[in-house]
Fold this sequence. Notes:
Elements: H1 16-29, H2 41-52, H3 55-76, H4 93-132
Amino acid sequence: SNHSSFPAPSLWRQSQGIEMFWELYTRETGCSRDSLNDHDIFAVQRKLVRVLCNYNFAKFCWKSLVQPQLRVNADDDVTMRHVTSHWVLDKDPKIKISTGVIERLLMHVDQMSKLNLEKQRRHFRVKFHFDVC
């Protein structure tokens, strides 16, 4: 998979990016750094995908930042040991479908804006030519 295409979190804005991530994560998911606070892991990961607008980046952040913190906590807390901290959305067909749809939508928007740009350029050229003659 292509998680390795993202730079290590320690490199994000001289590591300020990590703090920004945690701020966003805790605010948007209602979880704390070391606990899901009884939230459903599927729901938390879906929120993360939605907030970051990128499935693969959300998964990368989860595995490199969230999961290690949850694991540290689970080691200290016997009741937490059975609770999964893995990325679970790969097994969730709903997410796969919606990310596909979002990607297609983004591609469509991208193509449309390129077409519009081309139209504007042509229009400008024709208009300019007409005005000069």
